[in-house]
Amino acid sequence: MCQLQEDMDQLEGFKTQEMSKIKHLLLQKEQLLSEKDKQIHEHSQKINELSNQVRTLLEQNCKLSDAEVSGIHRLNRAERYSLLN
For residues 77 and 7, what is the distance between their CA atoms, to the nearest angstrom? Predict the structure, then answer.
């Protein structure tokens, strides 16, 4: 009977150790997950900022292209006018 009790106590000790290990591993994984979530959030913000910058640059490019085309048309009209006179 005494041996049985010792075996039960030993098993309970092993169980407690294993549960501690599992809790420690779970805590590590939760911390890692939290860090990854933070990184994802930061990267998403950076992507949004860069997307806005790209959009702004595209708009500026279109305006410049329109200005260039307009300038070319004015030059062509001026050249035609000077040829006529």
Answer: 103
